[in-house]
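User: structure tokens for NADH dehydrogenase [ubiquinone] 1 alpha subcomplex subunit 13, please.
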Amino acid sequence: MSFASTARRQDMPPPGGYKPIFYKRNPAKTYFSGYTWIAIYFGVTAVGVFAHYMNWKKVLRDDLERRSGNFAIFPLLLAERDREYLKQLRRNRDEEADLMKNVEGWEVGTWYGEPLYKTLPKGTLVEPTYWDYYVHASSKDYIKRAYLCLWS
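Assistant: Done. Predicted tokens:
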């Protein structure tokens, strides 16, 4: 049987046609008009301005107290930082003395009895580099401090 001899049946719309397509706009229900929204906006803004005005003096007073506290405690924090810095320098010196106690001619703070800084008067504090400051600490502590100084 050949396909040419069979009659084709074309797909047609149903009798009476298809139902109409609904395309009419269906707007959402409005709860407030434009004038009502403007009135609500101005009402909320007025309440916000009033609340800001009522709290502004307290905000200024609290800010003044915070800054006064910072100014009062800042010298104490600097003194504590400097004290800890000097204590660490002392610990480094004591550790150097302990490590080099069996080496002949070694004096702490010198290179085999030769001063490192010949032009400075005796007793002058020479601030060490980071490597010298963290010489007896772990490398993790040194890296943490170096990155803190780089990024802050």
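User: Anything notable?

Assistant: Helices lie at 34-99, 130-133, 139-151.
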